[in-house]
Amino acid sequence: MLRITRLAAMTLMAIILAVPAVAQASPVVHGQTDIGRTRSINQDVFAIFEQAKVYVVADGMGGPPAGEVASALAVDEVRIWATHPALRVFQRHFPALARDWLVMSYHAANLRILKTAAENPAQRGMGTTLVALMLAPKGAFLFNVGDSRAYRIRNNHLVQITRDHSLLQNYIDKGILKTPEEIEHFPYKHIMTQALGTQPIVEPDVYFDTPHPGDIYLLCSDGLTDEVPDDQILAIILAAPSIEEAVTQLIDTANKRGGRDNIAVILVAL
Predict the structure, then answer these.
(1) Secondary structure of 93-113 in the HEC alphabet?
(2) Which neighbouring-strand residues pair with 28?
(3) Is 59 in a helix, a strand, or coil?
(4) Which residue of 8, 30, 59, 260 is 20 to 30 Å from 189, comparing CA positions?
(5) Gap between the Cα atoms of 51 and 135, Å rounded
(6) Residue 87 to residue 208: CA distance in whole angstroms
(7) Pairing mode, if any, of strands 44-49 and 54-61?
(8) SS3 assignment, position 72
(9) How large is the greatest C-alpha to C-alpha distance in the chain, in angstroms?
(10) What is the spatial distance between Cα 240 and Cα 268, in angstroms, rounded to a whole number?
């Protein structure tokens, strides 16, 4: 049986850390959140962890202040994992371990929300969506629980990468809802089939993408996608003079269309 001593393990880690990282151009990133026009509290949270190249959007649920607590806890838990030095080593040398590391942050966030809710009766039932993008030297990983989304823009085309964990999406997948009219008037659009904090075990969807120069990734809550159709999202981003202006225009458009929910948007331009 092969046994690795602590000294050997430390030596191996020292060798790995000594290997220079592949130079990467830093992406241009901007994020923003807005309370919208009808809500009294903002339960959307976003975070940009520049050194780790990890970006997250969370949309809390469960009624104020519980939803706000759940989304903040989830993002803070990802922060703990994303800012750990081990992740940088994994990203450079062991992409599969980097992927699994972020998946573990989802499981840790789920348990943290459940524990907090169990200790605070007023917060029981709270939960949150969580969509994340992690850039690594050999590709991009995207993670999702709930109905916050990740998109990619390439060659003037917008593609949704993640799939919603919602009753609506299940009905579409099973062919129960077929026409745009049926989908538009479905009364239970926002019932989640999976969200952090609402069940003992969650299994985030994980997607791998190979970025190209010029790609733009969009992470957002449903406060954007419920108000602004995909074709208009694309048109706004392509026409905007900067990533910052594109984010502002997306949020402004969602508010002009009704602003019925909180809105969170991150754009990552490569």
Answers:
(1) HCHHHHHHHHHHHHHHHHHHH
(2) 269
(3) strand
(4) 30
(5) 10
(6) 17
(7) antiparallel
(8) helix
(9) 66
(10) 14
Integer Cα distance of 177 and 166 in angstroms = 13
* Helix 66-82 / helix 95-119 crossing angle, nearest 10 deg: 150
Nearest in space to 218 (alpha carbons), one of 133, 135, 156: 133
Phi-psi region for residue 53, left (φ > 0), alpha (ψ -120 to 50) or beta?
left
> How many Å apart are CA 162 and CA 145, to the nearest integer?
9
Q: Is the pTM of this model over 0.85?
A: yes
Per the listing, tokens 């903002």 go with 42
Q: What's the pLDDT tens digit per position in 193-226?
A: 999 999 999 999 999 999 999 999 999 999 999 9
- d(Cα 211, Cα 222) in Å, to the nearest integer? 24
Q: Which of 43, 41, 10, 48 is nearest to 26 (CA)?
A: 48
Q: In this structure, what token pair is assigned to residue 261?
A: 């929910």
d(CA 153, CA 131): 17
Structural domains for the chain? 25-269 (3.60.40.10)
User: How much of the chain is in helix, strand and coil states, percent to nearest 5?
Assistant: 40, 25, 35
Which tokens hold the place of 242?
A: 């900067």
Percent of the chain with pLDDT over 90: 79
CA separation for the pair 160, 111 (Å, rounded):
28
Q: How far apart are CA 162 and CA 170, in angstroms?
A: 14
